[in-house]
Each structure stands twice: as C-alpha cells, then as structure tokens.
Write a structure and sequence with these properties.
Chain lengths: ~300, ~300
Amino acid sequence: MPRFLFLGVDGGGTNCRARIRDDAGALLGEGTGGPANVLLDSRLVMSSILTASRAAAAQAGLAEADLGRAYAGLGVAGAGIKSAVARLLAEPHPFRSVAVETDAHAAWLGAHGGADGAILILGTGSCGLAVVGGRQSYVSGWGAQVSDEASGLMIGREALRRTLWAYDGRAETTPLADAILSRFGGSAEEIVAFAANARPADFGRLVPLVLEHAASRDPLALALVSEATADAARMITRLLDAGAPSVCLLGGLAGVLEAWLPPPLRERLTSPKGDAMDGAILLARQAQAAPAPRPASAAVA
Amino acid sequence: MPRFLFLGVDGGGTNCRARIRDDAGALLGEGTGGPANVLLDSRLVMSSILTASRAAAAQAGLAEADLGRAYAGLGVAGAGIKSAVARLLAEPHPFRSVAVETDAHAAWLGAHGGADGAILILGTGSCGLAVVGGRQSYVSGWGAQVSDEASGLMIGREALRRTLWAYDGRAETTPLADAILSRFGGSAEEIVAFAANARPADFGRLVPLVLEHAASRDPLALALVSEATADAARMITRLLDAGAPSVCLLGGLAGVLEAWLPPPLRERLTSPKGDAMDGAILLARQAQAAPAPRPASAAVA
C-alpha cells in the first residue's frame, strides 16, 4: 500500500475526469463526474469532483478513507476567477491537500511536463496558454459572447449566421447552407429560436456538417474553416511570440485545423507528452514538494 | 368631433410610441409606453400599447371611451412570429379594430407611403424590408446571436472582442482598445462578466466611443466601422436587387454609416416621407378601407 496517492482532475463545463496514481507514478484508477467549471455553484462543482474521485478510487480498489492520503490537483475551467476558486476551496473535501489551476494550466503541465511551451485547446470553446520561464500568457477563453474564436461554438454559430444570409438573399446559397436550413425544417424562425437558447456545445454539433461540406469544397464551408484557421493562427502566433518553443494543439478540432495552418506555424506544433489529468497530478506533486508550508489554496494562479 | 380616429403604434423591445390622428389626418396627440416586442408576454405588450395610447388620447383631450372610435395599427417588433401576434390579439383592448404588422413594415409604410421601396433600420439591432409590387423581402433582424449586423449591438460587441485580442496580445493595442479596457477598470474579467449579461442596448452604448476614435483614425475603430458598413452594404444591395427603387436608412446609426457607404449605394438612398407611427396609422387606414369584412388580425403578415 503506497503511503501517498496523487489525484488529478480535469474539469470543464460539461463533465470532469479524475485519475489516481501512486507515489511511484503507477496508474491505479480513473473515474468521471459532472460539471466542474468553477463558475458554477461551488457545491455542485465539489460534488462532481468527489463523484469522479470516488469512481477512480473504486476502480483502484481503494476505500473512501484512502482519499485522505491523496494530494489532489484540480485543473478546472474558470479557475482564473480567484473568488470562485476560494468558494470551491471552502467546500468540505476528504483530500490531504488541494491545488487548483485552470484546465489550460493542467493541459500545459501534462503536455510539456512543466517545461516551457504552449497549449492551444480548440474544442467547444478555445483557450491557449504559453508558459515561458514561469511566466503565463493566456489567449482567448473569454467566453461565448466576445471570445472563443476557432472553436466549435464559433464555427457552428457563424454557419447559422451565413445560412440566414443565404436565406434572406444577402448571399448566394450553397449546399451547406441548404443542408443547415433543411436541418431546421427550412425555417429561419426555427434557427432563430434554436440560437436564442443554444449552449456552446449545441452550436458545436453543426461542425461535422461544415467539415463534410468543406471536404467537397462548398464555398461557405471553406470560408468558415478558413476563418477559424486564421483565428487559430493568430492565437498560435501570439503563443510563439510569448517565447514558447512549441505549441500542442488539443481538443476536438485540433486534428482538423492543424492541416489548414500555414507551414511556418504547423512546423512549430508538437504532440503532448501527457493529458490534462496527468498535468493535474503533476500540479498535485508540485504542491506536495513545495518547500514552505502553504495553505491548500496556495497553488491558485 | 371626428367620427373616426386613427391610432398608430411603433413598438420595440425597449418602449413603444403611439400617435392619434383624426380622419382628416390632423395630429391630435402622442404618447409613450413600455416594451412592445410581440415575443414578450402578451399581457405586458398590450399593457404597454394601452399606456401609450391613453397618453396620446390624454394629450389629444380625448376620453378613454374615445379609443372605441379608433382604428389601431400596430407596427411591433417580433410580429413576423404569427403565434405571438395571435396571443397579443387575444388580449382585451378598447379599439374599434386592430391591424398588426412588423415594426419594419410600419417603417416602410411611413417612409414610402405604401409605394414600392425599402427601409433599412440600423439601430440597436438591424432589419431591412423591401416591398415591391406587394412582395416583401426581409433582410437581417434574426436576433443577437446569429444576426443584426451593422447594428449598435454588433459594433459594441465586436469592439469588446477586439479589445480582448489586444489585452491577451493577439493584436496591437490602439487608443480605442485602451479606452474600452479602462472603462472596465483595466480588467478583462470585468469585460467577460459584462458581456455574459449584457442586453443588445448595453453593447450599443459603446458605439459613441468607437465613432469618436474612428474620427481620429484609430485603426481598431476604423476596422469596426468599415466592417459594419460592409455588412450594411450587403443588406442594401439585397434590398435593391429585390427591385426597390430606393432605400431609406433609419435608426440611430443611419446618419453615421450613410457617409461611409460606396457611392453607387449612397445615391440610391432617400429620405423617409414619414415615420413608423404614421406608417402604423396608414396600416390602420388600409385595414379600415379593406372592402371585405376581415377579422381584426387580418393584416398580419
């Protein structure tokens, strides 16, 4: 039985995942829980984290009490907002210690093992982080209204906008615009009603249709993917200009957009060493190894 | 005492205005009420309309009972959604008859006196309508998420987006970006919190700052106004292509964007004959003059 355990949690607005390793680094178990964006209700977020952690402990053959031997690292969306992190850390938990950082920070730790470098997450939303000599530079990730370019949210929402342009005659229609309109029963009113209530992931579900049509050179689809690529290029350029020797593209759109990027950017991309859960475990190890006694929340950015 | 009265209401999401004329066309009174977008609660909308109508009646020296002699025309936002119009018409009202159309339709009736032509409203939102030989062609006006280009909403929201680009290093900063950031205490988090809860009019309140900086050739401000102008040009082109002999620009941004438009579009702009309240009065007159007996809702588009 190892003396210490290390627990890493990767948490976003939809769900979170936890992984437990022993002090030698061996994988013991993994589990899944509910939403863990820190901007949500702190009780809900801690409950999601505990659900994932207990599932990981159960898979590892550990008892509930064993979580008291775990140094926990939480890489959770929204952790840039310090007041929200403080609320989360005020919730009761069984862990020996808790260190919190953003999901992007955990992704960077996992991808580069703590060495200088950058990550760019292109998923439902988008967020990038370069860490160079301990200095952090974030890019994007400011939310659905005024940010998150090159994401599924953005591509899907812009696809609907341009479909309406075709619908009301401001633009030529294309097979993609026709396909989107028919997905809404040919009704612009249905699109409007959908868009008024859609969450980011709902817009993102249009991305496969866009990509399918881009493959057959649909002009609207080509424009949408090109614009997303230009947005991604702007973010990658910023991360490299901050001094990052390389950038790891992560998230569901990473594989898609990589091939569209200009070669001078593409050649600076690398594959991640590990994932965000292992990054969160590294965060927990760093907190444990910290020389001075620190409060549980000391690792908050 | 005139036998009949004609009441015209111009209603949007923020407030509504009513005007009463006698059967000879003489202006008797005007009044203001609350929100009248038909997509809001029907009781609230009718209450807003009655408040404005009673205020107009009071200014005209008329009694409440005189509204029973009024043919009412309502030009109200959201009236393209027929189910919402039906709910509004199910509310009790004192009028002799009620005809409902969109605010854009009333604006067109007022601007062109019912003749072929187009209007393009560039305000907090945007919406255009060409009517040619009785055939209506709407453009934009599909709501904040996927539409309403060239509006105060769009310019303000994009100004915040680009300010965040400057803040996180994706773009060079400019005096406008600096001014916007300092309006939010230098905090990107404040911008994010504002954007998450802002209504269209809240974004629109940034427009004066953008225009002020455009006047001194700020690169970001110039880009924002140029993009809005390109969006407006696309809409005007559509309205002209639908056969409209001319387009009246209306709304708070009309005067601003007109000067930026390419000459071939600018020379097709005309001044409106009358406003949307007079358009709504014309709607009421048309409904009264209709040869066959019609239900009160017959004028709904």
